[in-house]
Amino acid sequence: MTLKIQFSSFELECGTDEAGRGCLAGPVTAAAVILPSKFKNTILNDSKQLSEKNRKLLRPIIETEALSFAVQHISGTEIDSINILNASIKAMHGSISQLKINPNYIVVDGNKFKPYKSIPHKTIIKGDSKFLNIAAASILAKTYRDAYMEQIHEEFPMYNWKQNKGYPTKEHRAAIEKYGITKYHRKSFRLLPEQYRLDI
Q1: Where does the pLDDT of residue 198 fall: very low under 50, low under 70, confident under 90, or very high at 90 and above?
Q2: Which parts of the sequence belong to the RNase H type-2 domain (predicted)?
Q3: 52 is in an annotated binding site
Q4: Phi and psi at residue 165, in whole multiples of 5°?
Q5: Residue 13 assigned ligand-binding role
Q6: Digit-coded pLDDT (tens) for 40-97
Q7: Rounded to two decimals, what is the model's pTM?
Q8: Residue 20 belongs to what domain range?
Q9: Residue 26 placed within a domain
Q10: Annotated binding residue at 199?
Q11: How many structural domains does the chain have?
């Protein structure tokens, strides 16, 4: 299926998406992207459909060709205090607010969003596999978050975040059981299955 450039007929439509919602550690990261109307790319798709190599290849292309883009991380501590849905939306709002150009329409991947200023918006389920601007935002959110996880991996290598990026893999859960948790873990998440007891 060929992705359309955008959803609305507004000239400056911004796509936004987040990465890292289901992780046990690290931030939730969102990106916002406004693409030019003539933008074309045959590889660009939902970041989950692409190899890491292709995501890394696309990131500089998106950054060079976008009319404007921005990325926002919301920390695990803040996720714990406002919950993951609010943190995801806050990250999206934060990325939109950093755009150098004010969008006149916003398209959001998924089905949950809160109005941003008075700009009209539309939530689109699987939007990152339908529209190029949301797909571009999904690539930036994912690659920036992955880079962040690789950085904090150096601080706590026993959790192997450079590999699992904070997602709940067996290896990650086993490391939590063995070493406990770090300042990057989300304490409001179920970090271990019920048979393990974790004193927080």
Answers
A1: low
A2: 11-200
A3: no
A4: 55, 20
A5: no
A6: 998 998 778 899 999 999 999 999 999 999 999 999 999 999 999 999 999 999 999 9
A7: 0.94
A8: 13-153
A9: yes
A10: no
A11: 1
